[in-house]
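Hey,

Quick one before I head out. I ran the complex with magnesium ion overnight. Inputs first:
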Amino acid sequence: MNSIQQEILLELRNLSTVYPTKRGLVRAVDGVGFSVKRGQILGIVGESGCGKSTVLLSILRLIRRPGYIDQGQIIFRGQDLRGLSSNAMRNIRGREISMIFQDPLSTLNPAFQIGQQIHESLRLHQVIDGSRSLGPLKMGQRAREKERVLEVMTEVGIPSPVDRYTAYPHQFSGGMQQRALIAIALVCEPALLLADEPTTALDVTIQAQILDLMRRINQNRGTAIILVTHDLGLAAEFCDTIAVMYAGRIVEQGPVDDVVANPQHPYTQGLLACRPRISERGQRVQPIPGNVPDLAELPPGCPFAPRCSYQRGACDEGPIPLVSTSLGNISRCLLHVDYRRQKDWKWTDRVALEA
Ligand SMILES: Nc1ncnc2c1ncn2[C@@H]1O[C@H](COP(=O)(O)OP(=O)(O)OP(=O)(O)O)[C@@H](O)[C@H]1O
Ligand SMILES: [Mg+2]
């Protein structure tokens, strides 16, 4: 890896985001930290409700009130986004960091042509001539912008872009709508793309095409990507590094090969066992027993303990730290904390997991 690729683009430090609710404070993101280098693809993986979307929305400071970022830093290109004015933040969104939202249909406006919607994103940021005014367009500028819109439509694989420019969202298939959303996200050439379950609503073939497209964009333009998905197998094929989340916290993190080949946290192991494989069609997948806990009433210890076959009394006693394991991943589990002095802990339990 050369020095440009090693440049850290985004670093989250101890980020917590909460939603006050009638049932109490929901700590949707609790002390999350990771970094993304230029051109890198990070996967955030976990079951529904574990805080994945909240992490992405926090990065762009799009958490709706009464929710708020409680603590932590969001360092993008050396500056903490939490300290920026609303205006400065608007310039970051779309232009520097773009997001493909979880619900594609609600993002596209049914009343506007696809081309217009891509054009609007470009115009909002005035990328073509660098001016910030949204007044009447200068001579030739509109033509240059339209050219750029057609270029990006071609890049994301929308066929006959000149004809499709004037089509409305309902005239596009699900896969084409997702391509249009990627075009909106990419038209200003952001350095970082946040993709929240971008292929979940699509069938397997289209899913592969969209992932292929995102990989090409990553390779050709060096765009860094944070991919949010509940599918660890999909993340394994697509990402360089993986952060596994459970109940608002990262429970395991590391390079993709390490996390997938040697999952250390029992939750990661459970997620991998849930993944249906084509070669094993007909065999039952093993779901993780039990449910995700209520984030408004988290236990003092490990929130995964009630579902975990390695559970010991000590798991419920207090917060578990994220520690480096002997295999290089980082895991939030007592199996990887030096717990040999604990009375009810047997060294053989740990050996069993690592065998
Ligand atoms: N606006 C909100 N008000 C109250 N609670 C919220 C709000 N948005 C999210 N939550 C809660 O925060 C937690 C994390 O939600 P989030 O949407 O980030 O999870 P997720 O991992 O993206 O889930 P999914 O895979 O279903 O999209 C959940 O318990 C959810 O109920
Ligand atoms: Mg989500």
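The two ends are 32 Å apart (CA to CA).

Talk tomorrow,
K.
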